[in-house]
């Protein structure tokens, strides 16, 4: 099916997706594959946080205490990645830069070492594969690591992709699958008799739809017309990132992603086949500010330099800041809301690239059946409604 539009009547789709970041695009692509006439509304489809993100697929090294429920979804998505990337590449001809290179999380001092030991114990309790290495073993794997590295965790299952390639491939996949890309801002949701019926865009177009998916990243809580009680509690979490370029004659600089906590801040270095080396990322509660600051760049370079001193020789080719769509429990909000016809696909915070494959499948299932699949039930947006919050606090 494709959206119907006869002159004088507004175009009607089965599904309108507000937001064409990686999450909105994967939702639209998977919905179209299931035969739903789908429109994406975004002034710049394929933009958003993926233009900044490092692209770590780090279900294991990103595990935090208290986030075991999210771990299940992260692992489910990580398992889908090889087939997902192959399918997208076959359809679009784009290489996503999917590297199964693994990750090395290292410690620079006794405190970091204790912290990593705890993470290792948590991995073991959770049945996850990670291997403790001495400092010398770490340097054998990554010869450019600083001599001061005191030990580390080797996690071969945490991979990486290039999120810019992913976003571009998803735009092409949508186009090839018949998704209509309407390049405009959605101004407001239309609601008729307690049911979402579409959106009105900034260019004045009324886009009618059987179902609306709100996938507007960190702006998801700001769409006019969405009733207060179903508005997602999503906030922007700023991240600054640097891109350096490893000259052809220096490759391979690093063989895998290297990360650490330095003076309480997370820092990671993600190498790509192309020679790009991404260093990230700050985590700042600054509203919608995306300024790259001298302090942010200084701290990232200082911390990365402590891990891999040789980075200072490399050209610094890009500095950029983006906004993670943060949610109160750091987990995404997926599926139907309390307003009929309105679904959410947002709040993916620091794992949106990793969670792209599973989000597409979960939303396609919800759009065609009205239900969340078992693996996604804990991520219902209804967990944040007033009643559910009262129950949790009782
Ligand atoms: C510094 C940084 C590093 C990261 N590193 C990683 C990583 O290594 N691994 C990982 O898994 N994740 C990472 N992430 C997180 C990941 O990038 C995000 O979770 C993911 O990109 C969110 O995608 P999204 O489509 O939900 O939102 P966004 O990318 O924000 O896209 C939202 C889209 O909605 C559009 N939009 C908003 N409002 C409207 C409206 N009213 N009408 C029309 N369109 C609208 C915007 O134009 C935008 O294109 C990182 C993020 C940052 C910032």
Fold and architecture overview:
This is glycine oxidase. This protein has 394 residues and is α/β, with parallel strands linked by helices. It has 2 domains: 13-51 and 165-233 and 329-392, FAD/NAD(P)-binding domain; 103-156 and 236-326, D-Amino Acid Oxidase, Chain A, domain 2. It contains 8 helices and 18 strands. It has helices at 22-33, 68-92, 110-125, 135-141, 163-176, 294-307, 356-369, 386-393; strands at 12-18, 38-41, 56-57, 103-107, 131-134, 151-155, 159-160, 180-182, 186-192, 195-201, 206-214, 235-245, 257-262, 265-271, 276-280, 316-326, 333-336, 342-346. Strands 1, 2, 8, 9, 10, 11, 17 and 18 form an 8-stranded mixed β-sheet that branches. Strand 13 (257-262) and strand 14 (265-271) form a beta hairpin. Helix 2 (68-92) packs across helix 5 (163-176) and helix 2 (68-92) packs across helix 7 (356-369). The chain is globular, with a radius of gyration of 21 Å. The N and C termini lie far apart (47 Å). 49% of the residues are buried. Flavin-adenine dinucleotide binds at residues 18-24, 41-42, 44, 47-50, 52-56, 185-186, 215-219, 223, 239, 241, 280-281, 322-325, 346, 348-354.
